[in-house]
Structures are given as structure tokens and as C-alpha cells.
Design brief:
heterodimer; A: 534 residues; alpha+beta; eleven-stranded mixed beta sheet; four-stranded antiparallel beta sheet; B: 371 residues; mainly alpha
């Protein structure tokens, strides 16, 4: 009997021993780049619908836009599907020469008609990402007239009003807006009036350096390199994105070179990465700001001196050097460092001064302080930042109750103007002050009925006054110097009057194994086709 | 044993053959009827349980503060896009209409699409559920294989060093967080010693190889063995052993404690003392007499362990990047994705019901009194 009872134990031990002997399984070949990533939030692959960062990174390696952002300097436009362009004298008509000789994976040629259809469908579908066109005044009704392909390789875009061409091109033509979808191939994938949105949620049909061969979000995504890519040979044949959500697990896999790039680096792993000669850390300063907003619909928070007091309750540089080390730099302007029009870094006026904050609160009529609630996303580093502000506020007599919530719930409450203080982040999609100005300094109608939920200024009840008009004027200004001056003025005014208090600009941290000798990436894009691995 | 005779057996006892055959047939009908009634009752109670579960889940899901529309359209979108997506999800309809639509779809096994992946929920479940079954089964084999002998060992050596040792092992298994154990396991056995594979179900090349092979069960170990892909099998084995051991350890702790408790009770019974007085060897007393009498209780413990493992070990799945059921359900909950949540609740309900039925069946096999 005892020998029978021992069988499961022996079997388990045998399985363990068998596995131990099998650990080094199949080596990854040198022509395959493996990236440890978090493959959640792949809600869709449709360029008309994508709103998340990771699907955008993947699709920017599967689809070419009409223009690329420069590898080093994102503001430096490089030709993509469009070889060149001209702008009419009135600034309303853009004519693009489309590159010839490119073919979709289906074998169909890439033509201006594909681009025309892709742009129109995005506006007509009206999904979340349609705002990338509609914020320039394009409408579903006017889309047919706005995007036209008069010949096979000529595309004409007519804008509702004149814009600075440099701004308009970098904002609207360097990403998902101008991916060419294979119109002919997608014709029989259309269901009703969905413009093939159902199919494109989990499939791609565009021209770019890679094609998707395995797509299992939350597990693995494999891209195969095209061998006829117009920008030249791609050194790797295959790109694998492996889902490893935990940062330490990514670091361990990188140390063993089971992956070549780790995209999630936690503060606790930074030291180990820096100390390992086989690894290098790449810090890309993102155009993403973290802020807390004081809802102006709340009586106490609507008092300017209270708003000013809160600006003195953050130890900007202290946190940058401690909890946010390698993760962020302090930033008080609403325009991220690196964007066209961004104010100098050392001109930021606020610093930690609890006594001054206390005095301002007393002047505002609250000598005994007051009590408010701050809605805080549960993920790092928000709780740490919130606790820091809470402690400083307590010293100044303000009681802040922290309410930890899922990030999307904080957003939801902020959009509904149902918050006292919301702590969150905001990212810009291109390196120009306009990207943030149209959201953070633009609120032409502060009434509840206006429902301008896309604008954090409206969500916070920030009456931007003349700033809204200045935002509109700046994006139409052709003279770069004048535009710079307008953004400088806007930043001064926002710094002074905005109830949105900007505190940090985040880094994107990548840890790269020495086997990867070359890789071009900037804060907006990862160009995996440039990777060289040895 | 003088068990009461059934009508057919009683007839046979009295010798009337024709009459007995007739009674025997009628007895069979009676039994079949009783069985059909029992099955009907079970199915009825399953349906009521599942319906109650759906109502509760739907109401709780709708009470969550999360708005799935925001998750889809992102922070940047305007009110127009919000309304379009809200209508697409059917959230503009009254709550009871939404529920009826969900129920109607559910009856047709149409769970819709998952927000998180854009895939049909059924496709996602066909992927994540086998991953969990594989992990949970492996963990249960380890947990049971170690837990039962340890529990018996501790009971036999009650209040000795052995008993204390097993108690300490169990306590660590109970109290150490799986997340921490998982990370420590990866640091030691994967990063330092290189004995096991890293995160994920397969390494990259094995994944690509396995993609082209038939995958009838979705269980990588089984499918790769059936296809003769031994490299893939090795890769899968090297990657499952660590998460399964960690989950198995927690199960082992529970099973060992329960086994010990059951065995201690049995070993103090009079029939054991009588056996000892009669000179029956101790090994025989432990395994043939005492252990045999705890099998039914152990089945409940093991079935419960398996159910909890199948329900999902979310933190272990996160550490080991295991694309399983638990993390799928959790992400669905965080996004307030009712398609995913209700489908998963349906699956969890089925798991518990199936395992209960299996447990009942095992009772009948091991305990004649329940027949």
C-alpha cells in the first residue's frame, strides 16, 4: 500500500526533474528581436479607432504614414507614403504626390484612392480617434469633398480653414490618420456601414515594414519583416512582442537574454539594470505630463489664492530626485519639454513653500483650512505623489482625503466634473505646443451644457477667457516666430491662472540587451525596422 | 450486513420467476424514473443557480463605477464618439432591456466581443481556459501528491517533530503571498540556476513552431505530445513546472492540514485500537483502515482545491505571464466588460457544478451508504 501512496509524489518529482533538464529549450535566432511588453489594452487594431499607446506602437511598425517623424528630431518631417507636397496660396489646399510601386500584402497597389478612403472612413466612423481630424474642422458630411484622389498617385486634402502647414502636417499626417488601408481587399470585409471596422479590430491591411503573423493580445504578437520594404532592407526578419506584465520578470528575462528589450522598468529594477554591463537603459522623455486639477465648480477651490496655494504644496525637484528618479523630470508648464514653443525649463516659478501656502489660504478666507477629496489612480506613481501632496497640504492646514480609483474611473469622474481634485496624466501626440494647448488652454464655453469633455480645461471648469481664441489664432499663424511668442504668452497665463497644476513630465524607460547594437526610437515612435542585432 | 431487499430481489428470494421478471422490469422503470427525476432536479437547480448568478453579476457589474466607454474611446475623445460607442455597447438602453439582451445572447452562446482584445469572447475563452486547466491540473497533481502523504505522515507522528515540521511547511504555504513566491522562484530557479523556463507558456520559437501544429485540446503539453513536437513539449514543461509548483504548494498546504486533521480523528477511533490489539501491522492500519475512511472527505477537499485553482490564480498568472482565465476575468472586471464578466461567471458556475457532480459520483463509488 505504501508504495502505491508514494506514486503521486514520485510522478511529481519525475516531472520536475524532467523539466529541470529541459530548461534551455529553443534558442531565439539572431534575426529575431524579442520585446518584453504589456500586451493588454489591445482593444483594436483599426487605425480609425486606436486610442492606446501599445497598439499605436505596433501599428506604426505595420503601416507607413504619409510622413515620418525624424528618428532623432521628431519635428523633422521625412517622406513616407507621400513623396512631396504643395500648399495653395490661400493655405486651404494640400496636394500630395503619393509614392509609386508599393504593394499591400494582398498584392494590390497602394494608391491615392486607398488613402482617400482611409481618411474618409475615419471621419465618417466618428470613433474615439476621429478627433484627430475633427479637431481641424473636418466633418463626416464634408469628408467626401475634403479628401479627394484626382489621379492614381495624387491626393488632395482641402482644409476648412488655413493652418500653419508645419503644424498641420506633423499633427495630422505622421501617424494613424494617414495609414493607407487596402480598400480593394477590404471591400468584402465591410459589414453594413462599419467600413470594415469589425474586421480591422483584429486584423491589418496596410503597407509597412512588418506584417502581423501571430496576433494574440495578452500573450504574444509576432510580426514578419517585409523583404521589399521601400526604405531598405530590414536587418531582422521577425519581431516578437511577448506579454510579460511584471517588471521584475521582464528584467530577469532580459538578463538571461530571453528577451532583447524590456519596456517595463520599475524603480526597484533600475539599479540592477544600471549595474549590469550587458544591459543599457534608454530614457526617452515622453510628451506626457502628470498633473492634479482643482475643480472650479467647487466653491473653495474656485478661489484663486487657494489655487495658488496648492502650487506651493509640491516639492517638484525633491520628488524628481527621489521617488521619480529616472522616471520623470519636474515640469510646471503645460507644454512638454521638447515641443515646439515649450518654455525654458529653469523659468518655472513654483517650489515647495508650506508657509506661503498657509498664508495664501488664510488670505482666501480659510485660516482654519478646509477638507477636500483627491481622486487617485491606484497604479504607481500616483499614490506616492498623492501622499506627498497630502502630507504638505496637512502641514498647511488642508485635509486631503485620498480616494484610490481605477485610472479610467478618475477620468470618468473628471469628464463628468464630479471631483474635487483629480490626479492623472495627459499625453501629447506630436511635438508642438498646439497638441496640449487645444486641450489645456482651450475652453470656449465653460457651461455644463457645452460638454467639452475632450478638454481638461473644461473638465476642471477653467475659464480660459481670451486664451481659447489665442489657441485658434496660433494654429493658423504661419510665421514661426509669432507662433512661438503666442505660446510663450499662453504658458505664462496658464501657469498663473490655471487650476490644473502640472508637476512632472514622464520618461519612457527601455532596457536593452547588448545584443541589440542599433535601434532608433524617439518619444513618439519606435522604429523596429531599424534594429540591428548581433 | 442485512440490507433491506428491493422488490425485485425480494421476488427472486421467494422463487416466482415470471413474477420476478415482471417485478424486476418494473423495478428498473422505477429506478430509471428516479434517475430521470434526479437529473431533472439537478438540471433545474443548475439553471436556477446560473440564472441567479447572472442576475447578481449583472447588477454588481452595473453598480461598478467603471465606464467601459471611456476604456474604449480613451481620454482624448469628444462627446460625439462617446455617444456612438455607448450606443454600440447598448448602454443607452434601460437596464432591464440590457439584461434581456445579454440573456438572449447567452442562450445562443453568443457572448459577443471582448473590449480588451477585440476578439470574440468564445475565441478568447478557448485560448485562456485550456491554459488555466493545464496549470491548475499540474498544480493539483503536485498539491495532492505531496499534501496527502505529508498530512498522513504528520497525523501518524502527531505532536512530534515531524508534525511540527509539516505544520511549519503548511503555514508558509498558507501565508506566503503567491506573488512574492513567484518572483523569488523566478529569481532563484530561472535567473540564477537556469533550471526552469521563464515567463509565458512557451518560449518564443516554440510558440512559433506550435502555431502551425494542430491544437485540438488547447493544452500545450498534450497537443505538442500528440503532434510529436518534443521540443515544444520540453519548453512547455520547463515553463509550467515553477508556477504549478507554487500554486501546488498552496494547495499542498491546505490538503496536508485537512488530511492530518481527518487522519488524527480516524486514528483515535476504537476500530483502530482494536486493529492494533489484534496485531495488524501499523502501515496496514494507516493506509488500509484509517486512510480508506477519509477518502470521501478528501475528495471534497481536493475538488474544492481544484475549483479554486481553476477559478484563477491571478497574481501567479501575472508574475509568470500566464495567459489564463483569472487574469482574463480580472481585466474584464476592471474594464466593466459585461460580455467577458458574464461569460466567465457562466464558466465558473459550470466548473463548480461539474466538480460537484464529479464529487457526488466519487462519493457513490467510495461510500456505499450514498448509493
Amino acid at each position: 500500500m505504501s508504495s502505491k501512496a508514494g506514486h503521486p509524489t514520485k510522478l511529481a518529482l519525475a516531472a520536475i526533474c524532467c523539466a529541470l533538464g529541459a530548461a534551455p529549450a529553443l534558442a531565439t535566432p539572431d534575426d529575431t528581436l524579442v520585446i518584453g511588453d504589456v500586451l493588454d489594452n489591445f482593444l483594436t487594431l483599426d487605425p480609425a479607432e486606436i486610442g492606446e499607446v501599445n497598439p499605436d506602437i505596433v501599428m506604426n511598425n505595420v503601416c507607413d504614414p504619409m510622413f515620418f517623424m525624424g528618428y532623432e528630431d521628431p519635428a523633422n518631417l521625412q517622406p513616407g507614403l507621400a513623396e512631396s507636397y504643395t500648399v495653395s496660396d490661400d493655405g486651404l489646399t494640400y496636394t500630395f504626390k503619393i509614392r509609386e510601386g508599393l504593394t499591400f500584402p494582398s498584392g494590390n497597389p497602394v494608391t491615392a484612392a486607398d488613402l482617400e478612403w482611409s481618411m474618409e472612413r475615419k471621419v465618417k466612423l466618428g470613433l474615439g480617434d476621429a478627433i484627430q481630424w475633427t479637431e481641424w474642422g473636418f466633418t463626416a458630411e464634408g469628408a467626401d469633398a475634403a479628401f479627394e484622389a484626382p489621379s492614381e498617385y495624387e491626393l488632395v486634402v482641402t482644409t476648412p480653414e488655413a493652418f500653419s502647414p508645419e503644424l498641420f502636417l506633423i499633427a495630422a499626417f505622421t501617424g494613424r490618420n494617414t495609414f493607407a488601408l487596402d480598400k480593394v481587399y477590404l471591400e468584402d470585409k465591410i459589414e453594413g456601414d462599419d467600413f470594415a471596422n469589425g474586421y480591422l479590430k483584429t486584423n491589418s491591411a496596410c503597407y509597412g515594414p512588418f506584417t502581423i503573423s501571430i496576433y494574440r493580445p495578452g500573450e504574444i504578437i509576432v510580426l514578419d519583416a517585409r523583404d521589399d520594404y521601400w526604405r531598405g532592407d530590414i536587418a531582422i526578419n521577425r519581431l516578437v512582442l511577448q506579454h510579460i506584465p511584471e517588471a521584475t520578470a521582464q528584467r530577469l528575462a532580459l538578463e538571461r537574454n530571453d528577451i532583447d528589450v524590456a519596456t517595463r522598468v520599475s524603480p526597484s529594477d533600475l539599479e540592477a539594470i544600471e549595474a549590469n554591463p550587458d544591459l543599457r537603459l534608454v530614457n526617452l522623455l515622453r510628451h506626457r505630463l502628470q498633473y492634479f486639477s482643482l475643480n472650479q465648480k467647487r466653491e473653495i477651490l474656485n478661489e484663486p489664492k487657494v489655487v495658488e496655494a496648492f502650487k506651493y504644496l509640491v516639492d517638484y525637484t525633491g520628488m524628481e530626485e527621489t521617488v521619480m528618479r529616472n522616471l520623470a523630470v519636474s515640469r510646471q508648464s503645460f507644454v512638454p519639454i521638447g515641443a515646439f514653443g515649450a518654455m525654458e525649463e529653469d523659468t518655472e516659478p513654483y517650489f515647495l513653500d508650506v508657509e506661503r501656502a498657509k498664508a495664501l489660504i488664510a488670505e482666501a478666507g480659510y485660516p482654519d483650512g478646509f477638507e477636500v477629496t483627491m481622486q487617485v489612480p491606484t497604479r504607481f506613481p500616483y499614490p506616492d505623489i498623492a501622499q506627498h501632496i497630502q502630507a504638505n497640504a496637512a502641514a498647511a492646514g488642508i485635509t486631503i482625503n485620498l480616494e484610490p480609483l481605477e485610472y479610467s474611473v478618475v477620468t470618468q469622474r473628471e469628464r463628468a466634473r464630479d471631483h474635487d481634485i483629480a490626479l492623472k496624466g495627459w499625453g501629447a501626440g506630436y511635438p508642438d505646443a498646439n497638441a496640449m494647448a487645444t486641450r489645456h488652454a482651450w475652453n470656449p464655453d465653460n457651461s455644463d451644457e457645452a460638454n467639452l469633455t475632450m478638454s481638461p480645461a473644461w473638465r476642471t471648469g477653467y475659464d480660459t477667457g481670451a486664451l481659447s481664441e489665442m489657441v485658434q489664432a496660433a494654429r493658423a499663424e504661419i510665421d514661426a516666430e509669432k507662433r512661438l511668442a503666442m505660446y510663450a504668452e499662453m504658458q505664462d497665463e496658464v501657469l498663473r491662472s490655471s487650476p490644473i497644476i502640472y508637476i512632472f513630465q514622464r520618461y519612457a524607460n527601455l532596457a536593452v540587451h547588448e545584443s541589440v547594437t542599433e535601434m532608433k526610437a524617439n518619444t513618439f515612435k519606435r522604429y523596429w525596422a531599424t534594429v540591428v542585432k548581433e | 450486513m442485512n440490507a433491506p431487499l428491493g422488490p425485485a430481489a425480494a421476488a427472486r428470494e421467494h422463487g416466482g420467476v415470471g413474477e420476478a421478471e415482471e417485478d424486476f422490469a418494473s423495478d428498473r422503470w422505477e429506478r430509471a424514473g428516479a434517475l430521470a427525476l434526479a437529473i431533472g432536479r439537478t438540471l433545474g437547480s443548475v439553471a436556477i443557480t446560473l440564472f441567479g448568478l447572472f442576475v447578481l453579476t449583472f447588477v454588481l457589474g452595473r453598480m461598478l463605477p467603471t465606464d467601459p466607454v471611456i476604456a474604449i474611446i480613451g481620454d482624448n475623445a469628444g462627446p460625439g464618439a462617446y455617444e456612438i460607442v455607448r450606443a454600440e455597447l447598448g448602454l443607452d438602453k434601460p437596464l432591464h432591456t440590457q439584461f434581456l439582451i445579454y440573456m438572449g445572447d447567452m442562450v445562443r452562446f453568443d457572448f459577443g466581443r471582448a473590449i480588451e482584445t477585440g476578439n470574440l469572447v468564445t475565441e478568447d475563452l478557448a485560448r485562456v481556459f485550456p491554459a488555466t486547466i493545464e496549470l491548475a491540473t499540474f498544480a493539483l497533481v503536485i498539491g495532492t501528491g505531496l499534501g496527502i502523504p505529508l498530512g498522513v505522515w504528520a497525523a501518524v507522528h502527531r505532536d512530534t517533530f515531524v508534525d511540527q515540521l509539516v505544520r511549519v511547511i503548511s503555514l508558509i504555504g498558507y501565508s506566503a503571498p503567491n506573488f512574492w513566491l513567484g518572483l523569488m522562484g523566478l529569481v532563484v530557479f530561472y535567473a540564477w540556476l537556469g533550471w526552469v523556463g521563464g515567463p509565458g507558456r512557451l518560449d518564443v520559437m516554440a510558440t512559433i513552431m506550435h502555431e502551425s501544429a494542430p491544437r485540438p485540446t488547447g493544452l500545450v503539453l498534450v497537443d505538442s505530445a500528440l503532434a510529436g513536437q518534443w521540443d515544444v513539449f520540453q519548453s512547455a514543461l520547463s515553463r509550467i513546472v515553477l508556477p504549478a509548483s507554487i500554486l501546488g504548494y498552496a494547495s499542498c498546504a491546505y490538503i496536508a492540514r485537512m488530511t492530518r486533521s481527518f487522519m488524527v480523528e480516524q486514528l483515535s477511533q476504537e476500530y483502530i485500537i482494536a486493529a492494533r490489539v489484534k496485531g495488524v501491522p501499523e502501515r496496514q492500519i494507516v493506509w488500509r483502515h484509517a486512510f480508506r475512511n477519509i477518502r470521501v472527505q478528501l475528495i471534497t477537499v481536493i475538488v474544492l482545491s481544484y475549483a479554486f485553482l481553476l477559478e484563477g490564480a491571478v497574481l501567479t498568472e501575472i508574475v509568470f505571464a500566464w495567459p489564463g482565465f483569472g487574469s482574463y476575468l480580472t481585466k474584464g472586471l476592471l474594464k466593466a466588460d459585461m460580455n467577458v464578466v458574464l461569460a466567465c461567471v457562466f464558466i465558473v458556475g459550470l466548473i463548480f457544478i461539474t466538480l460537484n457532480l464529479i464529487a457526488d459520483l466519487c462519493y457513490r463509488i467510495f461510500d456505499p451508504r450514498t448509493r
